[in-house]
Specification:
Blueprint lengths: L10 H13 L17 H4 L27 H13 L6 H9 L2 H7 L8 H19 L28 H10 L8 H11 L3 H19 L19 H9 L11 E3 L17 H16 L3 H10 L2 H8 L2 H4 L9 H15 L8 H7 L12 H6 L3 E5 L7 E3 L4 E5 L1 E3 L3 H15 L5 H12 L3 H9 L3 E3 L4 H9 L6 E3 L2 H15 L2 H12 L4 H24 L2 H10 L1
Helix pairs in contact: 3-6, 4-6, 6-8, 8-9, 10-18, 18-19, 20-21
């Protein structure tokens, strides 16, 4: 006999609910998209406090938690205040109206709700009343009129946004698991208002103030009129304030995190070896101009018949000769990596197309830090326009980044936007990709300070170190994605940075000289071999006589 893994689960209530749902001819809400999800476990494990409400529970995911129960009295106070404006109607009349939309409410949640219809309707009515009471502070009114809140709510609702309780509730309001469908707020306002248009006007005014206060990039100047029916909940409204609508989402491909693919090479732009061959060509030109002392003898050895024969041998044979095997991978990397890429079979697809849709194979974007980019000549400039304005100007070597305001609520907002995007978006993860970009270019507090001084980061936190920690802590994502305009900017920055001669030489020295003891050992062996050859040569032919002979010539 097996025991019930969930002691609080009421099997009889579950059967009654299923039977009633199947028997009653309710309106079909199968087309209503799910918009409220559980936070993916991989994200939840990184920082639970950013996803689990700390002050107030809204909706059916975190009801009646003991540590949040203190806020229930404020919810009831908000419900009583709404009842005063119902023109003689009781609060349960509002509950009855919401109960008619029970199926639609349930359809919005990804999680199966074990509550009865009556419990769910009361929960929605009371939580929506509290939420609207709190959002009154954002109502935009013409003239000096200020919306008042109840005295019981006055110590947690703050017009200036300076009270800690106010910010704590704001953070809870934007959490993915703490959302209420926006149409529920609309129904509650409609119940209080004389018409639906009046209710929509009030709700739009609340949303405009809410977005202006919490959106890290500010409100867009070209923002169209807010359509309440187009947004699922408050977090969805914030998301669409930030994320532009792509015209061609079909060109994007995603790679799931659990795909077992390897990433070849740490620097993608280093695969083009043309500049390395150019470097060796310049070195050879310099050596050919030198014709004094030992250099002349070494040149005779290098350009002798045996060496010429070895050079003409196939690479597979040369790489297996004693002393040459340790040079196999560096030389192969330098001389043949480009040809290898050019000679790949098409496999039914054009190379150009595969390059366009090829998604990233690592979680963190490969891009140098702000400090490294600045040293290589990259400039940073703020731009108004949100994430869609990110671009790199190759003519002026300028990377344009949107101005982002970082405050006490920003990390929770960004994390829940990433969680919502990963759960709901079928296309590219734009916010996720942006956070990966910022994580890639900001490594230290010096990087954060540099961007702050350029006006790209408006820091309302305690220090630049907190800014760096905020971005570096957001590297975890659910799936890897490719966003055309963002990845083009990243590719252009990497191309410019890797094209600098100082960077080229530094990478080569670090990778195949200082980073390879085998290479250093081989160079020492070659040097010893050349000295021994020179010594043997001079023991047979007097070196001074050779000098005189060449001088007579």
């Amino acid at each position: 006999m097996t025991s019930n893994p969930n002691p609080s689960f009421d099997e009889i209530e579950w059967v009654i609910q299923i039977r009633r749902t199947l028997d009653e001819e309710l309106e079909d809400y199968s087309e209503v998209p799910v918009c409220i999800f559980n936070v993916p476990k991989t994200l939840l494990a990184t920082k639970p406090d950013s996803y689990v409400p700390q002050e107030v529970a809204l909706g059916p995911y975190h009801p009646w938690r003991p540590e949040l129960y203190e806020m229930e009295r404020y919810k009831l106070a908000a419900a009583r205040r709404i009842q005063k404006y119902l023109q003689g109607l009781k609060f349960h009349s509002l509950v009855d109206r919401l109960s008619k939309h029970e199926a639609r409410i349930r359809a919005c949640y990804h999680k199966f709700l074990e509550f009865s219809g009556e419990t769910l309707s009361w929960m929605m009515a009371i939580d929506a009343s509290f939420l609207l009471e709190f959002l009154q502070v954002y109502v935009v009114k013409e003239g000096p009129v200020v919306t008042r809140v109840s005295s019981r709510m006055s110590h947690i609702v703050d017009y200036a946004g300076t009270k800690s309780a106010h910010n704590a509730i704001l953070r809870d309001m934007v959490m993915l698991e703490n959302q209420i469908p926006l149409f529920v707020l609309r129904k509650v306002l409609e119940f209080q208002s004389s018409s639906l248009d009046e209710a929509d006007y009030r709700l739009c005014s609340m949303l405009a103030g809410f977005g202006e206060d919490l959106c890290p990039f500010g409100m867009r100047e070209d923002l169209p009129e807010i359509e309440v029916a187009e947004h699922a909940h408050l977090l969805d409204f914030l998301y669409h304030l930030i994320v532009p609508r792509l015209k061609e989402p079909s060109e994007i491909m995603e790679v799931m995190e659990n795909e077992n693919e390897s990433f070849e090479g740490e620097e993608g732009s280093f695969g083009d070896s043309s500049y390395v061959r150019q470097l060796f060509k310049e070195i050879c030109k310099v050596l050919l101009k030198l014709n004094h002392g030992p250099v002349r003898i070494i040149k005779r050895i290098i350009f002798s018949k045996p060496v010429e024969l070895i050079v003409k041998l196939p690479w597979k044979i040369v790489s297996n000769l004693p002393g040459f095997a340790i040079l196999k991978y560096p030389v192969k990397y330098l001389l043949f990596s480009q040809n290898k890429d050019e000679n790949k079979p098409e496999n039914g697809n054009s190379i150009s197309k595969s390059n366009i849709i090829k998604p990233p194979l690592i979680e963190e974007i490969t891009i140098p830090s702000v400090s490294e980019l600045s040293k290589s000549g990259v400039r940073f400039s703020p731009i108004n326009g949100g994430i869609s304005s990110i671009a790199f100007d190759a003519k002026t070597f300028t990377l344009y980044l949107p101005t982002v305001s970082l405050g006490v609520n920003t990390e929770v907002i960004l994390r829940n936007l990433v969680a919502y995007e990963s759960s709901n978006a079928s296309g590219p993860l734009i916010v996720t990709r942006y956070t990966e970009l910022m994580n890639g270019i900001i490594d230290t507090k010096e990087d954060a300070k540099f961007l702050r001084e350029r006006g790209i980061i408006l820091n309302r936190l305690k220090s630049d170190k907190e800014v760096a920690d905020l971005w570096n802590g957001m590297s975890k994502s659910i799936r890897l994605t490719k966003v055309p305009f963002l990845d083009k900017a990243i590719e252009d920055v990497n191309k410019y940075h890797s094209g600098r001669w100082k960077i080229k030489a530094g990478k080569f020295m670090k990778r195949y000289v200082f980073g390879s003891w085998q290479f250093l050992t081989f160079l020492a062996a070659i040097l010893m071999l050349l000295l021994m050859t020179l010594q043997a040569f001079c023991s047979v032919y007097s070196c001074p006589r050779i000098s005189k002979f060449t001088m007579h010539q």
